């Protein structure tokens, strides 16, 4: 009642108001839910190496025994020297402050326990999105607020030990510059852990709590030193240090060594675009909150550990390779690599030759991820570039449809045919085939090959490994059902680069030759299905998500479909794509000296180039890894510039082919990546799918 009486206006006490105050105090809650305060979320690689940190409040909780005794003693001495004597509210302190304030002074009386209560309540408001209700200083508290704080402080002291309260306080309190808690503040201002704070450093930080902006040692060093010395004087007065320790600390210069926290994927230690992809997946997954705002709070305040599938052994070489591909790159050509593990769908590496922020080492700056769909997390975030024209890397889809009908790779087709007119009799049981190639019709041309010597009969195998357009069309024309091409693409998970699972329409003839955008990750994963003998697995990037209490609250399990492609078909496709590297278009994959680049383990691949030579590919795999390599126009309409008569990395190209730049990028990277996984031989296909 004494405390309550001191906190209400004198007029309110008259006429029995004191009794009403007692009733109010009884009605106030006596329990305080002490939830973990907002903490840093960590995104880590498969081996635990840090990728990035995410936070709205820079805070890393530490135990009391992981804090220097200096800081514990300093904070008690300056903020609440009777902390270990009172029961949550210091009546003597309230009387002292009341007298001082009546005399025109300004003195607070909140104990560390009361301050802790205020911080816990504020943190709960922020966690619930009620930022406007946060109490910044004591002047914002009404009398009801102060009464509630008192009762909660008293109740808190009955529930927790002094050590627990002091630990909680030092982990939650704000020290300025987005440094919350003693560990974050120690790192920010002095680049040391809380356990290693010296006496002057501890006194400096303890002095900050009373006025973080006024006593900041970086912005206001003179005020900070005065405040530090006041703290040291209090420590001397209350027996925490002796005179010699005091004098030496007062005489010491203020020496800060800032370690500025850099949060967000843009500052990732590795794989910033992969990090961004992972974050978008979390933000669009209802498992982490019913609303977008809840998911954002979970991510930025939840202290999560997001363990990803990224393999730093591959990510490092991938990043080095794409950075080297285009050199200084004043023309802003894009280069990217993305690797998926066959049989699991795990994304092992994702790299591109740009940076998210200026000043990070390259002058190619963009937030767009070259490797993923435009809507990369089934949401509305257009953070993916939206894919590129895959060109001839789409030809294995028609090959899979051919083999799926039991037709052999060594069967001959008429690749001399160049006209497929409006009324060509395609055999189809689903959508009518759209598009035509016929120079006798206005606005159309006959079907073109890259070179004029390939208009002849040839095997389906040769048509694929030499990448002959007319052979692919002849194969499609020889199918019992043209719709099997669409079925093959769907079984491989190939969809539009726009995302959200939008189907790539293979009833449009131009798409047989890769005319519509597909993301590199989609292509890498499709070829991984061939590598896994027909088992299709959805791409996964998050192994598990652990909350601040060590509980597993999420993660992506491999979602695979066995025999999405018939195993014998996948094996036969691989058998043909091996020929690409040994006798076909892949022979043009050469080093700077003109020599062939060998992966070193059994491999299969397909080259691809769009009609403008502005978007070029190699997608290939071993038994253990599948990688899509891209080089070309990454951010604009590919028709706006072509890849002819261009200089790239000091070398002139009459025209850029998939094998010329994307090819060496793929092969040199795979030389390092492939030996780390399954290096065995591919399984042989059944003989009937080779010779018939």
From TrEMBL:
Glycosyl transferase family domain sequence ranges: 48-235
The keyword Membrane appears for this protein: no
Alphabetized Gene3D superfamilies for the sequence: Biosynthetic peptidoglycan transglycosylase-like, DD-peptidase/beta-lactamase superfamily
Catalytic activity annotation: [GlcNAc-(1->4)-Mur2Ac(oyl-L-Ala-gamma-D-Glu-L-Lys-D-Ala-D-Ala)](n)-di-trans,octa-cis-undecaprenyl diphosphate + beta-D-GlcNAc-(1->4)-Mur2Ac(oyl-L-Ala-gamma-D-Glu-L-Lys-D-Ala-D-Ala)-di-trans,octa-cis-undecaprenyl diphosphate = [GlcNAc-(1->4)-Mur2Ac(oyl-L-Ala-gamma-D-Glu-L-Lys-D-Ala-D-Ala)](n+1)-di-trans,octa-cis-undecaprenyl diphosphate + di-trans,octa-cis-undecaprenyl diphosphate + H(+); Preferential cleavage: (Ac)2-L-Lys-D-Ala-|-D-Ala. Also transpeptidation of peptidyl-alanyl moieties that are N-acyl substituents of D-alanine
Penicillin-binding protein transpeptidase domain boundaries: 336-624
Transmembrane spans: none
Pfam families: Transgly, Transpeptidase
InterPro entries found in the cross-reference section: Beta-lactam/transpept-like (IPR012338), Glyco_trans_51 (IPR001264), Glycosyltr_51/Transpeptidase (IPR050396), Lysozyme-like_dom_sf (IPR023346), PBP_transglycosylase (IPR036950), PCN-bd_Tpept (IPR001460)
Keyword terms of this UniProt record: Carboxypeptidase, Glycosyltransferase, Hydrolase, Multifunctional enzyme, Protease, Transferase
UniProt keyword annotation of Glycosyltransferase present: yes
SUPFAM superfamilies, A to Z: beta-lactamase/transpeptidase-like (SSF56601), Lysozyme-like (SSF53955)
Identification of the protein by name: Transglycosylase domain-containing protein
Organism, as annotated: Sinomonas terricola
Lineage of origin: Bacteria, Bacillati, Actinomycetota, Actinomycetes, Micrococcales
């Amino acid at each position: 009642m004494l405390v309550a009486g001191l906190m209400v206006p004198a007029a309110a006490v008259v006429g029995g108001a004191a009794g009403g105050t007692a009733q109010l105090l009884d009605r106030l809650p006596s329990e305080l839910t002490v939830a973990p305060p907002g903490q840093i979320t960590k995104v880590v690689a498969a081996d635990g190496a840090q990728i990035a940190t995410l936070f709205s409040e820079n805070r890393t909780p530490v135990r009391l025994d992981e804090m220097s005794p200096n800081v514990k003693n300093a904070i008690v001495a300056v903020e609440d020297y009777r902390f270990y004597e009172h029961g949550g509210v210091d009546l003597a302190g309230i009387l002292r402050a009341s007298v001082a304030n009546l005399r025109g002074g300004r003195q607070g009386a909140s104990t560390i326990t009361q301050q802790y209560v205020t911080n816990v309540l504020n943190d709960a408001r922020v966690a619930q999105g009620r930022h406007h209700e946060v109490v910044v200083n004591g002047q914002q508290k009404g009398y009801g607020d102060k009464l509630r704080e008192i009762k909660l402080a008293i109740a808190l002291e009955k529930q927790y030990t002094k050590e627990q309260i002091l630990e909680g306080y030092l982990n939650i309190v704000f020290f300025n510059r987005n440094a919350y808690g003693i560990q974050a503040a120690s790192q920010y201002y002095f680049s040391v852990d809380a356990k290693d704070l010296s006496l002057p450093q501890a006194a400096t930080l303890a002095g900050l709590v009373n006025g973080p902006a006024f006593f900041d040692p970086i912005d206001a060093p003179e005020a900070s030193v005065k405040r530090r010395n006041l703290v040291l004087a209090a420590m001397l007065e209350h027996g925490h240090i002796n005179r010699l320790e005091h004098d030496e600390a007062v005489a010491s210069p203020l020496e800060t060594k800032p370690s500025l926290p850099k949060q967000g994927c843009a500052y990732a230690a590795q794989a910033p675009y992969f990090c961004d992809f992972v974050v978008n997946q979390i933000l669009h997954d209802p498992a982490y909150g019913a609303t977008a705002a809840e998911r954002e709070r979970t991510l930025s305040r939840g202290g999560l550990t997001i363990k990803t599938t990224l393999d730093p052994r591959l990510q490092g070489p991938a990043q080095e390779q794409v950075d080297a591909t285009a050199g200084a790159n004043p023309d802003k050509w894009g280069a990217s690599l993305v690797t998926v593990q066959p049989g699991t769908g795990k994304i092992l590496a994702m790299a591109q030759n740009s940076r998210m922020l200026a000043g990070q080492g390259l002058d190619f700056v963009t937030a767009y991820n070259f490797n993923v769909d435009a809507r990369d997390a089934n949401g509305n975030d257009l953070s993916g570039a939206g894919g590129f024209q895959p060109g001839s890397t789409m030809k294995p889809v028609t090959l899979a449809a051919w083999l799926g009908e039991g037709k052999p790779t060594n069967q001959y087709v008429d690749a001399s045919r160049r006209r497929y007119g409006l009324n060509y009799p395609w055999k189809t049981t689903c959508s009518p085939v759209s598009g035509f190639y016929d120079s006798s019709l206005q606005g159309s041309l006959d079907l073109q090959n890259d070179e004029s010597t390939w208009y002849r009969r040839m095997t389906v195998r040769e048509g694929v490994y030499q990448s002959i357009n007319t052979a692919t069309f002849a194969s499609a024309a020889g199918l019992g059902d043209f719709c099997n091409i669409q079925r093959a693409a769907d079984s491989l998970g190939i969809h539009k680069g726009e995302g959200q699972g939008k189907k790539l329409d293979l009833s449009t003839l131009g798409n047989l030759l890769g005319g519509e955008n597909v993301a590199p990750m989609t292509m890498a994963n499709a070829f991984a299905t061939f590598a896994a003998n027909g088992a299709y697995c959805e791409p996964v990037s998050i192994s598990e998500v652990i909350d601040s209490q060590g509980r597993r609250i999420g993660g992506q399990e491999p979602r695979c479909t066995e025999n999405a492609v018939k195993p014998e078909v996948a094996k036969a496709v691989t058998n043909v794509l091996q020929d690409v590297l040994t006798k076909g278009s892949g022979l043009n994959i050469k080093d700077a000296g003109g020599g062939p680049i060998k992966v070193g383990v059994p491999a299969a691949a397909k080259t691809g180039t769009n009609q403008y030579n502005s978007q070029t590919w190699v997608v290939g795999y071993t038994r253990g890894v599948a990688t899509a390599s891209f080089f070309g126009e990454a951010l604009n309409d590919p028709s706006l510039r072509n890849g002819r008569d261009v200089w790239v990395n000091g070398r002139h190209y009459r025209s850029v082919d998939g094998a010329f730049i994307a090819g060496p990028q793929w092969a040199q990277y795979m030389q390092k990546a492939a030996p780390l996984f399954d290096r065995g031989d591919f399984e042989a296909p059944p003989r009937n799918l080779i010779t018939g």
